[in-house]
Specification:
Radius of gyration of chain A: 22 Å
Largest interface: A-B, 26 and 26 residues
Order of helices and strands of chain B: EEEHEEE
Number of helices of chain B: 1
Helix content of chain B: under 10%
Shape of chain A: globular
Shape of chain B: globular
Oligomer: heterodimer
Structural class of chain B: mainly beta
Strand content of chain A: 15-25%
Number of domains of chain B: 1
Helix content of chain A: 25-40%
Largest sheet of chain B: 4 strands, antiparallel
Structural class of chain A: alpha/beta
Chain lengths: 418, 88
């Protein structure tokens, strides 16, 4: 695989852009692999890449039922941050942030990681106290965090509602300067290309319909492209974790819910950071094309439909206008939905399963994008060694049985309220 | 918008209702010492892609708890009944 560089752009320009290689091969399945990763989203592709890069396991296939970039890795709002409160989450997401900071170089693919900073507004003295607690925990873990007062917030983001009539006046904010966004398609393509460069087969339009067992052990998968043998199978299928888990005999603490995202018509530069509203569920950033990319709450009832309900469009728009009255006349360009596998504590699951030969990566709720590199890193370790990575040890399936849930919002156990 | 045919109030927008989740789970007896049964009741869900029996409460209406049978792939509602008389 020819590396991308300034020189390669120059050379291909001289030959009329006709000699670019495919970013990854259009692979057809071999009879068997050492590891099969089900799900060609960000997490599945990252897992395959780190299996090869960190553990030398290169006889790997990634099976994707649709196309690369067509699932949640291409449907999210691309926010990356590591401002988590609870032990287990704090360290995992900061490790992920560090991987993001080196990702473009690691993958030889520009993922356009933009550390523009993220702030969450506080609307009461008590909320700001809570944010100070969070900032202290972040700083104790070596993570950058700042507490801003009202005037500092106003200097940073003057377009928010600082008027006397604001429904929820802004008291301050918590700010993480290293947070930001990345181009989500580039993350999928970059991991796919880099994994392919290590010999991983990426097989698109290949849906897994069942598991092949030898006694109790899983030794392969049935797919729409036939039976494929596997030494180990890793599951990284986002919103469809329950469906594939059930085929393997797993009953999981997961519900699938739809989350909507929105983009407006393009504007001149306005929102320089990622801004989240502390009084409701709304957050916004501005894409390189100028569109405001934003999101809010789940639709709130079990759903496998990748589209949402107009009631939530109204709720999110109301929250947006309460925080940023200046965008009230802007038109919505598109909105779409993705299926989230919601756990009862809104934290993910990365672990070996009770089924021999099967490993699980799921339950990412609405926060999986920022975790992509660390999730792949830790899941590859779990598959290669059969044991949890120390950084994802808190994400075992047994935490619900033993009462060690990681409930950041304190909203559990109803998945739709997380 | 979903339209739920409330047995008391007639067809109403789902905004008038509060979602109550999977109606197939059964609460163990309050003195049941089996932790596995409590784990299953609190956390484990079948989460089907297809017909789903689920609770909704008509909070801005008659305030009755209902059991609604809905397809999670396309939101088609096939039946609505009072929860107190409905068998899971």
């Amino acid at each position: 695989m020819a590396p991308y560089s300034a020189f390669s752009i120059f050379r291909n320009a001289l030959s009329g852009q006709k000699n670019w290689q495919r970013a990854w091969r259009a692979a057809e399945p071999k009879p068997a692999y050492d590891v099969i990763v089900i799900g060609g989203g960000g997490h599945g592709l990252a897992t395959a890449f780190y299996l090869a890069e960190n553990h030398g396991i290169r006889n790997v296939a990634v099976l994707e039922k649709g196309y690369i970039g067509g699932g949640n890795v291409g449907r999210n709002t691309t926010v990356i941050r590591s401002n988590y409160l609870l032990d287990g989450n704090t360290q995992f997401y900061e490790f992920s942030m560090k991987l993001w900071e080196g990702m473009s170089r690691t993958l030889n693919f520009n993922v356009m990681f933009s550390q523009r900073g993220q702030l969450v507004t506080a609307h009461s003295a008590d909320q700001l106290d809570g944010f100070s607690h969070r900032a202290n925990i972040m700083q104790l873990n070596g993570i950058d965090a700042d507490i801003l007062d009202r005037d500092e917030v106003r200097r940073l983001v003057p377009y928010l509602d600082f008027s006397d009539t604001a429904r929820f006046p802004i008291h301050g904010a918590i700010f993480q300067g290293r947070a930001g966004t990345a181009r989500h398609d580039a993350v999928a393509w970059g991991y796919a290309r880099a994994a392919d460069g290590h010999g991983v087969d990426i097989i698109q339009n290949c849906e897994v319909t069942g598991f092949v067992r030898d006694g109790e052990r899983i030794v392969g998968v049935e797919t729409t492209k036939g039976r494929i043998g596997a030494g180990k199978v890793g599951l990284a299928v986002a919103g469809h974790t329950s469906i594939l888990g059930a085929k393997a005999g797993l009953e999981l603490p997961i519900e699938s819910h739809v989350l909507q995202a929105f983009v407006t018509e393009p504007l001149k530069p306005l929102v320089d950071h990622v801004v989240a509203y502390g009084a409701d569920h709304f957050y916004v950033s501005q894409s390189d094309k100028g569109g405001l990319v934003f999101g809010g709450n789940l639709d709130g009832y079990n759903s496998y439909a990748q589209r949402g309900n107009l009631g939530v469009v109204r709720e999110v728009a109301e929250a947006a206008i309460a925080l940023m009255p200046c965008i009230s006349r802007i038109r919505l360009l598109r909105h779409w939905g993705g299926v989230m596998d919601m756990t009862p504590d809104a934290s993910p699951i990365i672990c070996p399963t009770p089924v021999d030969g099967l490993y699980l990566n799921g339950g990412w709720c609405y926060g999986g994008f920022k975790a992509t590199p660390a999730s792949g890193w830790c899941f590859a370790h779990t598959i290669a060694t059969g044991k949890p990575h120390p950084l994802s040890a808190a994400y075992g399936l047994d935490r619900f049985r033993t009462g060690r849930t990681l409930d950041e919002a304190g909203a559990g156990p109803s998945a739709w309220l997380q | 918008m979903l339209r739920i045919e409330c047995p008391c109030c007639g067809p109403r927008d789902h905004d008038e209702f509060r979602y109550g989740g999977d109606a197939s789970v059964r609460r163990p007896a309050h003195d049941d010492p089996d932790l596995e049964a409590w784990y299953a009741y609190v956390y484990v869900r079948k989460n089907p892609a297809g017909l789903h029996r689920e609770f909704w409460q008509h909070v801005i209406g008659c305030r009755q708890w209902l059991v609604v049978e809905r397809d999670t792939r396309n939101h088609v509602i096939s039946s609505v009944a009072f929860a107190r008389t409905s068998q899971a």
